[in-house]
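FAQ: What does a ligand-bound record look like?

Like this one, built around norvaline:
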Amino acid sequence: MILSIDKNLQKLRGNSFLSIADLNCSQINALIDLAIKIKNKEINIDCSKKVLGLIFDKSSTRTRISFQVAMQRLQGSCIEINPSNTQIGRGEPIRDTVRVLERYIDVLAIRTFEQEILNEYKKWSNIPIINALTDYEHPCQVLADFMTIKEEFSTFDGLTLSYIGDPNNVSNSLILCASILNLKINIGCPENYKPCEKIIKKASILNPKNRILNIYHDPKEAVRNSNIIYTDVWSSMGQESQADNKEKNFKGFIVDENLASLAAKKHIIMHCLPAYRGKEISDELFESDYSRIFNQAENRLHTQQALLGSIL
Ligand code: CP
Ligand code: NVA
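The answer part, i.e. the structure of the complex:
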């Protein structure tokens, strides 16, 4: 619970966070500013006696551990609910599981496959549900990413973010967040791999005045004069069977020093991790002074404290 609550964050209390588009521009900025204060140790948030439950149907290092540490720092606690040794893995219906869990715990963060699974949890739950990654979105990741961008550039005004590679859950959330914050976003991907129509439509609804989203099939066009170059794996979790095919189709879309030389003079390199060096990103660029990749990973801890502190 935040002692002096920002009025933009007051409305988040008790709310679920399934999509970055559940937040408006003022709320995203307020969460980022709160996370920066938490990082600088200027504010303490007390969530003592509150319990976060984690249900992860897919692997995770950063999200799982940053949520666990975030709850410790808020003086609350965290419990991992492992699908394979609970009745979840044996097919107990979500509507039964969640109506039990809400009697023990205060908030649930869930990593799973279809976004509809989260909708089902939310439908039957009286406690907030947080999207810890689905096939469709990764909103907690982009909160940390835009915090990293704000730390670097102080403002979002006039910035261009270029996402090169596979349009996926991370790029979907980046597109929606850029639409809300009014940044220009270029997607560089092979033909036949463009972002889904639902995301393209949602971006135009969120930001009807400006054409913030541009899709290129030449990565050089996509990064020209950009301030932020972002990439992610070509095959997300659950798409392992497509990996060979994608490696062929994404040849030429590696983010390397040649490509980055076309960006604006002041630019940064981002990746949500885990990364495959030599595939979507070169080792040189990953390890270069332009990289803010480990700042992004650290900022997961701070933005999730800000999020939990506002929701609880
Ligand atoms: N970026 C991210 O969500 O990493 P994990 O899969 O390790 O949680
Ligand atoms: N797009 C990646 C992100 C991992 C954090 C995946 O879904 O596997």
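Follow-up question: can I read anything off the structure? Yes, for example: Residues 293-311 form the longest helix (19 residues).
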